[in-house]
Write a structure and sequence with these properties.
It contains twelve helices and 22 strands. By secondary structure, it is an alpha/beta fold. It folds into two domains: about 240 residues, Ribonuclease Z/Hydroxyacylglutathione hydrolase-like (Metallo-beta-lactamase, Chain A, 4-Layer Sandwich), CATH 3.60.15.10; about 140 residues, Rossmann fold (3-Layer(aba) Sandwich), CATH 3.40.50.360. The strands form five sheets. A seven-stranded mixed β-sheet has the order 1-2-7-8-9-10-11. A hairpin with a 3-residue loop joins strand 7 and strand 8. Helix 5 crosses helix 7. The protein binds flavin mononucleotide (FMN) and fe (ii) ion (2 copies).
Length: about 400
Amino acid sequence: MQELRKGLYFVGARDPELKVFDVIVPTDTGTTYNAYLLRGEKTALIETCHDRFAADLEKNIEEICPLSDIDYIIADHTEPDHSGALHTILDANPDVTVYGSAPALKNLKNILNRDLNSVVAKQGGELDLGGFTLKFFSAPNLHWPDSIFTYCEELRCVFTCDFLGCHYCAETDDGLIADDSRYLAELERYYTYIFGPFPAAVKKGLSIIRSLDVSLICPSHGPVLTKGIERVCEVYDRMSEDKTDKDLISVFYVSAYGYTAAMAEALAEGAREAGKNVSVYEITGTEKSVLAKAVQTSGAYMFGSPTLNRDALPPVYDLLNNVSAVLDRNKPALIFGSFGWSGEACGNLAARAAGLGLAVDEELCKVCFKPSEEDLAHLREKGKAFAEKV
Ligand SMILES: Cc1cc2nc3c(=O)[nH]c(=O)nc-3n(C[C@H](O)[C@H](O)[C@H](O)COP(=O)(O)O)c2cc1C
Ligand SMILES: [Fe+2]
Ligand SMILES: [Fe+2]
């Protein structure tokens, strides 16, 4: 427990041992699940924490007041790392009223599987605690449809849940940033995993923050920000810029005997004739980060694989895992590959690409074994026509 401002307490939990969050996010310094108690005439708990740390939350609150004193719980976002311990509070205090967006309250119904008193926290809505007033701002897709920000004017403080947070658990209990470059690296990493798919929502979120008079940012992971707020917003500005170059086409392929490789070069040559900037990548010989960046920045793609044992090869599927079904939606994609007798690779890759929301060219460019001069001429034409449409 820590008093941040008069009447505002940090009651969250530290998890320094955590190595991975949400299955895929590395957390080298662990994380924190921040929750805040705000005491006016009425008492509000802002966020709870991961179920595993419910006892810590309870203990921290009870250093200030009994759980039965809590009048309101504000759920800015309902992912179970912030709502998992809610049932503990409800067990002790079933009369508490939960404030959240309409989607948040719907989520809580399915997360808690029990009845609760609730009020929709509408855009611009307020909750008077007596001495402190909380004001709600809708912030959808930061990073779930349920997200809101809660602002306390008297304290010039905004509670942003995951927004502007990061998995950085300070070495000491005071929550201070001990290693600034590590903190910034974690902030960027958190952004990439959590907010990367939602740049437009991020820009709206930043404009809300900048429209408020703020001296304290209380996110729900990592340090509370009393200074350097604009610096952190600038990281979000930079990272939410649109990185797509509409004139860039990337060609990705693998090839055992060079036949699919020859197809890749012919398609690329044609696309260059159409005036596009074209990069060709043999997937297995290219560093993963280079491939990921190419996927992110390209305006259109070509994917090639020979057929082996009735399918495309795993490196091409792995590469496709870099395509974002949110951000890369509707980017044009052309599928190609050499085959021997059955030729399933192209159809299967096309299905995966379409499943990711790419606009897959209806012509699958398939060649039986080695492309002839005639095949190559057709591929150059096809590459040009595809690029002209991009
Ligand atoms: C282990 C192995 C399995 C193969 N299985 C298939 C197959 O199931 N269907 C097919 O059409 N071709 C199959 N082929 C043939 C290749 O698709 C064909 O050799 C193709 O031209 C290779 O192109 P590349 O030089 O780009 O690798 C197979 C080839 C190998 C080496
Ligand atoms: Fe979240
Ligand atoms: Fe979170």
